[in-house]
Amino acid sequence: MNIKNYINRIKYTGEITPNMVLLLQLQKAHLLSIPFENLDIHYGNKIDLDVAKIYAKVVEKGRGGFCYELNGLFFFLLKTIGFDAKIVSANVYNNDKKEFGKAFDHLTIIVKLNDIEYLVDVGFGEFTFFPLKLELNTIQTDSRGDFMIEMFEKGVYQVLKLSEGKKIIQYIFTIQEKVMNQFTEMCQYHQTSPDSHFTHQKLISRPTENGRITLAGNILKITDKGAIKKEVEFEKSEFEKYLLDWFNIDAASINTDGII
Fold first, then answer.
1. Rounded to whole angstroms, how far apart are CA atoms 213 and 198?
2. Are 72 and 87 in contact (CB under 8 A)?
3. Helix, strand, coil shares of the chain as percentages rounded to 5?
4. Which among 127, 120, 208 has a CA at the least distance from the CA of 170?
5. Three-state secondary structure call for residue 121
6. How do residues 174-209 score in pLDDT, each as one tens digit?
7. Which pLDDT belongs to residue 256?
8. Which of 44, 88, 128, 231 sits most deeply, having the most CB atoms within 10 A of its CB?
């Protein structure tokens, strides 16, 4: 991993000393620069949990990825810089089915600083800009909203987003350290199963300072300060044009296996 190239990819220009200030800045910079996307799934490219391949895709080719790639890669950056970090397993809550996904459904990060642990996530779509302290039943205000961590059951934590007096479940997670290859089965599941929402349509999304830019299927949606600033429905054949215009990604560079 070339730290300089990675740092340049996320447009970070400050000091590289493993402390809370750096962690805050790196997480936000990563989110603003690298999109969450599932495009390889729809262009016939298998996603392997090989850090060198993920690095080449995200840093050298200017792409994004989904949780296993983004959080997996960010974890290795943090470790290389000198942070006390580990990857852990999470189960995402499905609001439609009112149930959690399987173990290893989501890969996220725990960072320990000054004997305090923080939940760090750059691969969950609309989430926090900054780390969440593993402090139970305390409202933590982030620029993306109010969040809270509760005990779900013994050894399992639950992260919630607070909105209009309601607690919206995001996911549950453990703090037992895992390794990348333990996520292989679920990574394969999310690429191939019709029950995975990642296989349903092309998706790429990136937050802005006050909103989000998203291409989902044949719809471009731009939000700002909680309001829809722009929403365009286009022909599916135009997806690649919008992808280039809004995310500076050439579809020809994605289709490495020659399958659409």
1. 18
2. yes
3. 30, 35, 35
4. 127
5. coil
6. 999 999 999 999 999 999 999 999 999 999 999 999
7. 54
8. 128
Residues in CB range of 20: below 8 A, 6 or more apart: 113, 114
Q: What is the token pair recorded at 77?
A: 């950056």
Q: Which domains does the chain have, with CATH numbers?
A: 3-196 (3.30.2140.20)
Phi and psi, residue 37, nearest 5°: -155, 155
Is the separation of the CB atoms in 32 and 207 below 8 Å?
yes
- What is the full DSSP assignment across 241-259? HHHHHHH---HHHH-TTS-
User: Using CA atoms, how far apart are residues 24 and 105, in angstroms rounded to an integer?
Assistant: 25
| 220-256 residue pLDDT tens | 999 998 899 999 999 999 999 999 999 999 988 886 5
Angle CA 253–255–256, to nearest 5: 85
CB 96 within 8 A of CB 177: no
How buried is residue 259: exposed, middle or buried, by Cβ count under 10 Å (0-12/13-18/19+)? exposed
